[in-house]
Structures are given as C-alpha cells and as structure tokens.
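Example S7 (structure tokens).
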C-alpha cells in the first residue's frame, strides 16, 4: 500500500467515524472539549495572577530597599500599576470560573466570553505598547532629577557635550530596540496564553452550532 492509498483510507475512516454517534453524543463530546479549553484558560489566568503578584512584591521590595529616590519612585509606581492590574485579572478569572461551572455551556455565553477575552487581549496589547515609551521617559525624567549622586552616570554626563550626546544616543537606541522587542514579545505572549485557546473555543462554538 502506497502513501496516497493510506491517506485515502485514513480520511475515509475519520469521515465515517462519527456516523454511529447521535447528535447529542457529538454535542456532549464537544462540550467536554470546550470545558477542557476553558480549564487551560483558567490556568493561564491563574499563572498570570501569580507572576503578577510576585512581580508586584519584587518591585515593592526594590522600591523600599534603595537609597535612590528615582528608583524608589519608579518601582513604587510600577508596583501600584500591577496591583490595579491584578484586579482585572481576578475579574477575568471569575468570569472564566463561572463559565466552567455551567453543566452544558450555552453558545451565547461562550461567544460573550470569547469577545471578552479578545477585548482583553486587544487592550492588554495597546496598554503595553503605550506604557513602553511612558515608562522609559518616566525613568529618564526621574534619573535626570535624581539628587543622590550616581558616580558612573555623573562621570559620563560631566564629560561635556559629547557625554550628553552619548547618553541621549544610547537612550534613543534603547527605546527603539526595547519597543520593537516588546511588540513581538507581547504578540507572542498573548497568543501563547490566550490566543491559541480562543481559536480553539471558536472552533468548538462552530462545531456546536453545526450539531
């Protein structure tokens, strides 16, 4: 048997495998698959809450353990932002958990949930990309107004006009590189923890509608 014949027989088997099942059986199987996807989404949100909490604690420790006012302010504000963001994640987790408690997922509820996740992903991406330049400029502004001496930086800036140009050039290159890196990383990250499951849910919704 050559490869083409094997593929043909396999496709025929797959296409006729469901014929012995009732529409109710197929719907039940799809419902189980849907719940499995929702479970994975729940774990993704739980992991994000955990890492967000750890990040907030780390930033808070850094804020209170440094002698530099600029670093204290930067990490303190960052910790506050993460604290607020955690409430959004908890709300998302609550919505996901509520959906997972339903014995038979209603298609309209699934559609609403998918819309919620997609809106969250969209706003997440927009917020991240907006915060990249804001954070960098904020850090630069704090560093510029830092009263405590930073020997290495003071030496570079104090070396004259060339030193200031060097700092400005490095800052611009860093801003561009970091922004590009964050763009692709955020795209990949959102797809990994949410996007691929949303696509699977959409497929399940389509299959449920057909059955």
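Recovered sequence:
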């Amino acid at each position: 048997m050559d490869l083409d014949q094997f593929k043909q027989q396999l496709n025929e088997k797959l296409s006729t495998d469901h014929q012995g099942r009732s529409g109710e059986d197929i719907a039940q199987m799809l419902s189980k698959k849907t719940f499995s996807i929702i479970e994975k989404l729940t774990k993704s949100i739980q992991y994000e809450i955990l890492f967000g909490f750890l990040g907030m604690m780390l930033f808070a420790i850094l804020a209170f353990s440094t002698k530099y006012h600029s670093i204290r302010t930067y990490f303190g504000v960052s910790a506050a932002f993460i604290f607020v963001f955690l409430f959004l994640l908890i709300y998302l987790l609550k919505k996901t958990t509520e959906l997972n408690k339903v014995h038979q997922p209603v298609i309209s509820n699934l559609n609403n949930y998918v819309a919620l996740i997609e809106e969250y992903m969209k706003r997440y991406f927009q917020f991240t990309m907006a915060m990249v330049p804001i954070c960098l400029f904020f850090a630069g502004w704090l560093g510029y107004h830092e009263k405590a001496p930073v020997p290495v930086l003071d030496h570079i800036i104090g070396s004259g006009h060339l030193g200031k140009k060097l700092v400005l050039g490095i800052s611009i290159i860093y801003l561009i590189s970091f922004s590009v890196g964050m763009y692709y990383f955020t795209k990949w990250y959102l797809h990994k923890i949410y996007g691929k499951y949303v696509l699977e849910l959409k497929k399940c919704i389509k299959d449920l509608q057909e059955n």
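Notes on this example. Residues 13-23 have pLDDT under 50 and may be disordered.
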